[in-house]
Amino acid sequence: MEFLALSNPDPNRKEIEIIQGLFEAGLDAYHLRKPGLSKKQLEAILQPLEPSLRARIVLHSHPDLALKYSLQGVHASSSFHKPGLVTLSRRQLFSMRFRNLQRSISCHSIERLMATRYGFTSLFLSPVFNTISDRNISAGFDERSIRHALHRVDMPVYALGGIDEKTVVQARDLGFSGVVLQGTLWRHDKPVESFQEVRMALRKTVREAASLTVVKPAVRSA
Fold first, then answer.
1. CA dist list (Å): 53 to 27, 34, 62, 207
2. Other residues' Cβ atoms within 10 Å of the Cβ of residue 66
3. Is residue 46 a contact partner of residue 56, using CB atoms and an 8 Å limit?
């Protein structure tokens, strides 16, 4: 299972330090979503990062910077969900322009998840869980419909919304390719430590499952 992080939309003077710390702790990709920042301000975050770290950054605005700095990918806006030939044409251009990059988009319903495939390489489904402290799947998403959709969608789907050290296990069991952490990171003063707690919670369940596996000795025939 992959671990992705969605940035705090507000400016953070420690952003570069946090990004580096998250990657060192095992984060797979960092989605940089700063709707209030200009292109120049975004570049101020990207420039100090090592090329190996930039290659794991996904932008939610100013997508041309993804090409300029050899980033991992771009995340499309909700406008790409609008029906009609104009949107289809936009998706085609989007797919061609960023054909060598990862291309993702967020979906807020099972129907939209099933319909949104062309032009993208991965999808987010949100909100999967009610709140950061609620273990129940949110209204509109039941376990059966999620399992059915994930089985039919032929690309990675990531769970977003309410992911913490408890719900990350549920997300894995439902069949998601990975999770996107946001609230559980930024509600704490130390987001890197929060990420490590979530990651270790999942590892713990894997170890516990392995320890419960009993290998029966072979029975010798007389």
1. 11, 18, 18, 29
2. 24
3. no
In the chain, the domains with their CATH numbers are 2-211 (3.20.20.70)
Task: For 69-91, write each residue's pLDDT tens digit.
Answer: 999 999 999 999 988 888 889 99
| Predicted model pTM | 0.89
Q: What is the pLDDT of residues 129-141, one digit of tens each?
A: 865 434 455 555 8
Question: Residue-wise over 166-205: b if at least 16 C-beta within 10 A, else e?
Answer: ebbbbbbebebbbbbbbbbbbeeeebbebbbebbeebeee
What's the pLDDT band for 209 if we cut at 50, 70, 90? low
Query: What is the C-alpha R_g of the chain?
Result: 19
For residues 49 and 62, give the distance between their C-alpha atoms in angstroms, rounded to a whole number: 18
- Residue 7 is classified by DSSP as -
- The pairing of strands 57-59 and 73-75 is parallel
What are the structure tokens assigned to 151, written together?
Answer: 């089985």
